[in-house]
Amino acid sequence: MKFSMWPNPERPSAEVLDLARTADAEGWHCLWYADHYMPNSGSEETLPGHVHECWAMLPAIAAVTERIRVGSLVAPTSVHHPAVLANRAATIDHISNGRLVLGIGAGWQVNEHHVYGIDLEEPGVRVSRFEEAIQIIRSLLNDDVTDFHGDFYDITDAPANPKPVQSPLPILVGTGSPRMLRITARHADEWNTWGAPDMAAGALDKLHTACEQVERDPSTIWKSTQALVFMTDNDEFAANIRGGDMGERSIIGSNAQLVDEIGRYAELGFDELIVPDFTLGATLEERVAKYREFQAEVAAHFT
Fold first, then answer.
1. For residue 154, which phi and psi values (nearest 5 degrees)?
2. Beta-carbon neighbour count of residue 261 at 10 Å?
């Protein structure tokens, strides 16, 4: 398995770049960055917090690193026009010398759509828009010119140059719904889901079903997941986390217990575990220390 970092987008930009340099120097696989404009409230309500913009941060991360992959987790096609995403991705692939993963999704966060006046369409319409968008992005990244005439986009003899360094530039889709999974199976190179092993296993079963439906070999899709990581020897604290709202999206316990949990991901067939920094400490120094402990005491068992 590969192991990647995911800094909270509320971190100061200088701290994110320092973390990226650490990841690059110390053997991590990728640094992912969320594509949102504000903290999620689950409603139209705005919450306080500074959130840095993904497509401004990714080229900066690419420029200060040499080895790690960099990626968006994930860019909503409800917000971004596919031609904009394709051209951004190709340019950042050049800045990084071929290290970008273009992560996309249909969009979901209510408050950022509401306050900026961006339509958050009904789920079925949103997925239909996404299905057109991913095909346009793929064509713009691969083909000399793109023609696409759909219900949402009208693209005529459109170039997108320069082409990426990677051929093809990998497209990741973050999703769990059956229809989105079928679109992923048809058009994507990578897939991402949330969850501790039990939750992730259920999502993986749905991906396998989607692959069967479209006659795609699931082994040809790179599979990543992320979970909140709580490194603790305190059994009472661990039990409280497991029983809380984020329990099914968390892996919790001693380093030895985390090795067992991650072993389950590996047995399921996941290729990559993304470790958010959200639970690893209040300061950059604390978070880096936890990442180093995780790498030495947990991830080392899988490399």
1. -130, 100
2. 18
Q: Strand runs (DSSP E) across 188-281, as ranges?
A: 190-194, 222-226, 228-231, 250-253, 272-276
* Domains of the chain, earliest start first: 2-215 (3.20.20.30)
Burial code of 57-83, b = ≥16 C-beta within 10 A, e = fewer? bbbbbbeebeebbbbbbbbbbbbbebb
pLDDT of 173 over the 90 cut:
yes
Would you list the DSSP string of 4-57? EEE--TTS-HHHHHHHHHHHHHTT-SEEEE---SS---SSS---------HHHH
Alpha-carbon gap, residue 84 to 95, rounded angstroms: 17
Crossing angle for the helix pair 255-268 and 197-214, nearest 10 degrees?
10
Kindly report the length of the chain. 303
Q: Which two tokens stand for residue 242?
A: 């497991």
Tell me the C-alpha distance between 291 and 276, whole Å: 10
Q: Are 104 and 72 in contact (CB under 8 A)?
A: yes
User: What pLDDT, in 10s, does the model give residues 46-75?
Assistant: 999 999 999 999 999 999 999 999 999 999
Single-letter code of the amino acid located at 155? I
